[in-house]
Amino acid sequence: MCGIVGFVGKKEATPILLEGLRRLEYRGYDSAGVAVYDPERGLQVVKTKGRIQVLADQVAARGGLRGQVGLGHTRWATHGAPSDVNSHPHVSENGRIAVVHNGIIENYAEIKEFLQSTGVHFASETDTEVVAQLLEYYYHGNILDAVTKVIHRIQGAYALGIVCADCPDRLIAARKDSPLILGFGEGFHVLASDVTAVIEHTREVCYLDDGEIAELTADHCWVYDAYLRPVEKERRHVDWEISAAEKGGYEHFMLKEIMEQPKAVRDTISPRIQDGRVVLDGVELTPEYLKNLDKIYIIACGSSYHVGMAAKYTLERMLRKPVEVALASEFRYCDPIVTPHTLALVISQSGETIDTLAGLREARRLGARVLSIVNVVGSTIARESDNVLYTWAGPEIAVATTKAYSTQLAVVDLIALYCAGQMGTVSRAEYDALLAALQAIPEQLETVLERREEIQYLASIYFNHPSVFFIGRNMDYAVGLEGSLKLKEISYLHSEAYAAGELKHGTISLIEPGTLVVAVAGCGHVFEKTMSNVVEVKSRGADVLGVTVDSRREAMGRTVDHVLTVPDTETALLPSLEVVPMQLFAYYVALMHGCDIDKPRNLAKSVTVE
Ligand code: M6R
């Protein structure tokens, strides 16, 4: 979604803003812009539809933008098509106040109508422009006063960056339900949607909370609540290396991140296994609490939801407690049955997905305890959870998640083992076997990655199939969901995932000669059942690519056209290995189609609007 970067200091702002925007490109965007206060010429704005390079070229064509205070923005269109005029920054009619915004102003139409009735003319179709014009309406010499009036008038989600030409030594920021961080440096301050934009300049940051307003100059930072009462903020040090946000010789971030999975999973599990037991420090899952648990409600979106689908099988089998998996966008409006004995397990890479955050808040409101699995340290979901287990995947830049998905699975496995240990629901022998198998996963991931040329070859055979179905049962079905999403989001091929036994209840009518079916069949107890479904699609002319474990290569190979295998492991851990051929297959298919793999069309890395 939209990305914000702001700078105030004693250096030229424009290069810092453009570099920050480049680092925010991964969030997904369709246009970009900058506003810089030039002491001689006042507020200068350059904005355009298209890539950051187009913006940089336009800035250069104007001989650069001079000034030490400024804002930059990447826009992911919601209200109004991607266009030069709808790009941010938006400026009040008299050019005094420039605004960048991430989020949606839900009551913008009513405010726009009101402002138009007072004679204000709007230039764009965006919801954001009402903020710039409303600030001007309320501005009577004190920009902070105007900001407080505006935030009490607007509804919806916003992270705002503001520059006012009357106080050109400062940036103003405000936030509600959209992420915004402040960065501290020697003689400068920055603001940004996430740390990747500023990590080159500072590692000392703080996270604005909902309803807060920040005022930044080169040397000072003040944070206030929505009534301008001062707020003390805790500073945090960011450990991420800048190299983690660079491609390091790979053609795409997605491939780099796929290849990083053994390390990411190792980093996630190793510190949490001590003396043959899973240790989850700071997580309050006591035997007493677990005994009285009525349900685990998993709340997530997209791939994180698919982790939840796999988690349901593992947690129910190991804990014998009901697990419900909800799409966060549905959960928040479905009047869910949640009690103080419900554990809400919230899964999110970014920790900022607006639906997931709203689901978390709803679960808390209904009395559930919230345990979250999050990758981005200090993100809103992490901060609002009762307990958080971080995935140590490092920054994930490609829009299509890979290493975050794998580390989320690993944390689910740790939770399952930990709770089973607390509750005594699995035997010591089973616990030990699962733990040993989990510890072997990083090495087994390396084995799967070594087979990537075979996957690339199969992608070259199948990349032109216009429609792909993924089928599987049990955990294999959960993996199929993820495989299908990976393929469609980066290669734009039509693809669907089905529980293999469900196909014959309608969807099999779509199978015809030449349709590609990816059959995932690692789970031993349903292998024969899935193979029966494979025979059904084969006899209707489908081409079938099978995915199973090494020990069933031959058995599967007798029926399907090609087989990919992963090392044998415990059933509960199969998704961790099976997903990798899916990721690589999607990657190579997209590559062969010449797609923009790291920045697929229409998609954003972090979905901060509903
Ligand atoms: O940051 P989150 O895990 O909350 O994001 C959820 C989804 O938006 C995300 O998994 C999305 O589906 C990915 N693009 C899938 O690759």
From TrEMBL:
Task: Choose any GO biological process term that the UniProt entry carries and state it.
Answer: UDP-N-acetylglucosamine metabolic process
- Gene Ontology MF: a single term: glutamine-fructose-6-phosphate transaminase (isomerizing) activity
Enzyme Commission number(s): 2.6.1.16
Annotated localization: Cytoplasm
Q: Which UniProt keywords apply?
A: Aminotransferase, Cytoplasm, Glutamine amidotransferase, Repeat, Transferase
Indicate yes or no for the key word Zinc-finger: no
Query: Where is it found, in Gene Ontology cellular component terms?
Result: cytosol
InterPro entries, alphabetized: GATase_2_dom, GFAT, GFAT_N, GlmS/AgaS_SIS, GlmS/FrlB_SIS, Ntn_hydrolases_N, SIS_dom, SIS_dom_sf
Main location class: cytoplasm
Give one Pfam hit by family name.
GATase_6
Give residue ranges for domain SIS: 285-425, 458-600
Reaction catalysed by this enzyme: D-fructose 6-phosphate + L-glutamine = D-glucosamine 6-phosphate + L-glutamate
Query: What superkingdom does the record give?
Result: Bacteria
Glutamine amidotransferase type-2 domain: which residues?
2-219
What is the active site of this protein?
C2, K605
* Family annotation (HAMAP family): GlmS
**Description of how the protein assembles with itself and partners:** Homodimer.
What is the protein's known function? Catalyzes the first step in hexosamine metabolism, converting fructose-6P into glucosamine-6P using glutamine as a nitrogen source.
Q: What is this protein called?
A: Glutamine--fructose-6-phosphate aminotransferase [isomerizing]
What organism is listed for this UniProt entry? Candidatus Flavonifractor intestinipullorum
